[in-house]
Amino acid sequence: MRLPAKTYDQLIKKKLTKKRCKFNNNRPKYNYLGFDSTLELDLYKELEEGVKNGIVSHFFWQTPVRLPGGKKYVLDALVFFTNNHVEYLDAKGMMTELYKLKKALVEEIYPFKITEVYRKDMPYIQSKTIERKPKCHPK
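The structure assignment produced for this chain is given below.
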């Protein structure tokens, strides 16, 4: 079957045009990774810097958390600090209803809280002083 030239041109044009992002944000790339926003990229770079400076022991990027019904919530970063403190981070530019629902569900099921990182919080690691909490409290 042969397509008319006009239809063919429309199909080619449609494939070559970039798909717009959900919130009209920029989707940067860095170290062969794609990021949903420049805020996520900045957080990633800061965590890498924290590893180099010895503040962060290591971190996992885009960590999935399983939810009932076969659903999942993806944390932007699971961060392990050198003082044995662990944080579950999510870079937030826009709060959606779906995010609020999934966050509440995760915090209801699992024994941790998700820390939201906003643009105003950057640089996050340098602005946050983490004190080591004793594992047992003396009476």
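Interim note for the steering committee: The two ends are 83 Å apart (CA to CA). Strands lie at 29-30, 33-34, 56-66, 72-81, 86-91, 114-117.
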